[in-house]
């Protein structure tokens, strides 16, 4: 049985249920790979919730804070640190080639469609390098209901199609609490940043 959320946050019922179910996985003492693989199924159910879909009508069309990308921040778990975010991409937007550092990420598409390109490193340098040799490893399309499962340090790029795309994101910890890498494919240079700006937003 799912546990109660300790802080009783102001969330839509389906989102609150999702949080309780993920907390229960941590309380069972499961390893993170199993937690997030299981949570993929929970998120798939959440993406079908009609109240959540309707709530997206209030979300900003695109997000930036002083030129930096922004995420809506709905919830941060007080005990286990995972967060619920949303990312709204404008038509035609392309991200940098980047990773999510040591965090686990579930990226569920609520609206729109985009192309995700995976990359892999061919060098054996450190996780947080100054330079890296990177090559393309595959491409796939994402669409409403799809969940992109992104383990730690996986390198990727998202290319939005010609419409607004909304992603509902579950991260194992809040952006800004860990370092991420950006990769320059032409020069091999790697720069570090602290991820999207977090913008508190009510999901109720």
How many domain units? 1
CATH superfamily: Jelly Rolls
Structural class: alpha+beta
Kindly provide the radius of gyration, computed on alpha-carbon positions and rounded to a whole number of angstroms: 17 Å
How many extended strands? Answer: 13
Proportion of residues in extended strands = 35-45%
State the name of the first-level CATH class: Mainly Beta
Average per-residue pLDDT, rounded, comes to 92
Order of helices and strands: HHHEEEEEEEEEEEEE
Shape: globular
Number of helices: 3
Low-confidence stretches: 1-7
State the CATH architecture: Sandwich
Largest sheet: 7 strands, mixed
Distance between the termini: 23 Å
Q: Quote the CATH topology.
A: Jelly Rolls
* Share of helical residues: 10-25%
Describe this structure in words.
The chain has 204 residues and is of the alpha+beta class. It has one domain (13-198): Jelly Rolls (Sandwich). The chain has 3 helices and 13 strands, in the order H-H-H-E-E-E-E-E-E-E-E-E-E-E-E-E. The protein has helices at residues 13-27, 32-47, 50-55, and strands spanning 64-65, 68-76, 83-89, 97-98, 105-111, 114-121, 134-142, 147-150, 155-160, 165-171, 180-183, 190-193, 197-200. Strands 1, 2, 3, 5, 8, 10 and 13 form a 7-stranded mixed β-sheet that branches. A 3-stranded antiparallel β-sheet has the order 4-11-12, with no helix packed on it. A 3-stranded antiparallel β-sheet has the order 7-6-9, with no helix packed on it. A hairpin with a 6-residue loop joins strand 2 (68-76) and strand 3 (83-89). Helix 1 packs antiparallel against helix 2. The chain is globular and about 45 Å long. It starts with 12 loop residues before the first helix and ends with a strand. The relative contact order is 0.23. The model is unreliable at 1-7 (pLDDT under 50).
